[in-house]
Every structure is written in structure tokens, then in C-alpha cells.
Amino acid sequence: MASPVCWRIDVIVPTLQTEAFEEILEPLCAVVSSFLIPPDDTLSRLQGISETTLDEAAIASKLAALASDLNAEISDFQITAMADQDWVADNLAAFPPIQVGRYFMYGSHIQEGMPGGAVGIKLDAGPAFGTGEHATTEGCLAALDQLAKEGKKFRRILDMGCGSGILSLAAAKTWRTGIIACDIDPGAVRVARENVRQNGVGSFIYAQAGNGYRTPLVQTKAPYDLIVSNILANPLCQMARDLRCHINVGGMAILSGFLVRDARRVATHHVAVGLKLRQKIVVDGWATLIMYR
């Protein structure tokens, strides 16, 4: 093999604690991805790509310390030297076109035409979560597709925890209306803005980094007719009252980012503040809730 120009980190972690372990890898890597491990998806493989030599012992020590703090088990940690063409090709091959309802997600490396009548969303796999392949993103896209088929109209939309902006892009191309895309991670917002530019919907979507519903722009533009939030169960439960305060009477919310076993808890927190459960969508053991006020 040619002299290595990049290094790949691999480690298996509990799915519910993926984000905590990602925080260790992200400062070291240009790209960090997670892949669910079947059949029950309770474990995920984290994979990071670095263009600089890595201190294997130091990374192993940090991962082990976090695992101890979380009372979690990790396995199969390794760092592999790779040639540039290896990981680029693998990364692109791992992101084939995906269709969910009317939405057709594809990378810039895809040359073939789009299915007739599909809504095209151009996305390249990168450091921000959301390229359509995760079950929670699929559930949210299915929910958007269903609401569109029912003829629902939304004038003001909030994508809370936007990641790559995929749900904002889908909503913009469906309803052609104003959308606020917010994420606590400035890096995700930079990715979302680039995806907005590539998809030609800059006149509809404004992406901003901020602290959830306390973000000034999120407060200024409230109330919303539709709020989409694909994050995690605990933050969703903690933000239930804030969501209720920022949504119109008759407005709808699409909530995801959690396993089926957490769906009742998420729904209960939102029902307690005045929302009602309309539907639950399940994809590969992950849940998406459609709720309304």
C-alpha cells in the first residue's frame, strides 16, 4: 500500500451513548460517522477519519475513562493507516441514493437521473448528522411526506437540532416557506448552510447556531406551525414545555431520535404540557412521533 495519508479510528460503543464518545473523536477527525449494528441496534460502530497521525494510547485512555464514567462497555478499538483513495471511495460507496416517500437523497458522486416525481435532496456524507440513512431521519421524512400527502399547509417551520439540515431541505422543497434551522453545534450549522446553498433553497431557510429555544432568532420567529426535532429522548423531554410555548394552536411537531422503548416517555412529557399524540412511526426499532397542539 502507498504511504498512508489518513488514519481511521474504529470503536464499538452503546448506541444510546454514541454522542458522548463522538465528542472525544470529533476534535481529532475530519469526519466522524456512526453505524448501527444489527440485529437489535443496541451497539454502534463509531468511525473517524483523521489526516494527521494519532496517539493511539492517548485516545484509548480517553475512551476507557469515559466508558468507566458512563458505566459502559466499548470494544474493537483500533486505528488503521489508509491511503487517500481507500477511505474516500469507501465513504462514497457507503452513501448510495436513498428514497423515503417523495424524498430522494443523493450525493454529488451520483450521476444517474432522479426517479420521476421525486423531490431531490443533494447531500454529501460529512461531519454533521443526517444523510437520510438513519432510521430516525427516515421516520421524520416519512412523517413529512405523510403530512404533505394529507394536504397540510405550514407557513412557519422550525428545525430544532438541524444537523446537516436534511429535514429543513425536505420541508423547504415541499412547502416553499420560511424555515429556521437551529443547532447547538456551529459545525453542523456550517454544513447545513452549505447544503442549503447546494440545493438552491437559501431564500427559505435561515440556519443559526444557538442554545435550543433560548436562541434569540428562534424566539423572535415564534410561534411555529410545524416543529421538527430529531435529537435524543432526554433533551426532547427537557424541552417539551419550550416546544409547547413556541408552537401555534393547531400546530404540529415531529419528534425523533430515540428507540421505541423511549417513545412512551417522550410522548408523556409532551402530553403533560398540552400536546396530543397523533401517530407513531417505527423504523428498525427507532420511533418517530407526530404530535399536535
Uncertain segments are 85-89, 127-131
Q: What distance separates the N and C termini?
A: 59 Å
Share of helical residues: 25-40%
**Any idea what the radius of gyration is?**
19 Å
Overall pLDDT confidence: 88
Report the β-strand fraction as a percent range. 25-35%
SSE sequence, one letter per element = EHEEHEHEEEHEHEHEHEHHEHEE
Backbone shape = globular
Strand count, sense and closure of the main sheet? Answer: 7 strands, mixed
The spatial strand order of the largest sheet comes to 10-9-8-11-12-14-13
Number of E-state strands: 14
Helix and strand content put the structural class at alpha/beta
Report the total helices: 10
Folded structure, characterized:
With 293 residues, the protein is of the alpha/beta class. Helix content is 34%, strand content 32%. The strands form three sheets. It has a seven-stranded mixed sheet, sandwiched between helices.
SSE map:
Layout: E1 6-14, H1 18-25, E2 31-37, E3 43-50, H2 56-70, E4 75-82, H3 84-93, E5 98-100, E6 103-106, E7 119-122, H4 135-149, E8 156-160, H5 166-175, E9 178-183, H6 186-198, E10 205-209, H7 216-221, E11 224-230, H8 233-238, H9 240-245, E12 247-259, H10 263-272, E13 276-283, E14 286-292
Parallel strand pairs: 6-7, 8-9, 8-11, 9-10, 11-12
Antiparallel strand pairs: 1-3, 1-4, 2-3, 5-6, 12-14, 13-14
Helix pairs in contact: 1-2, 4-5
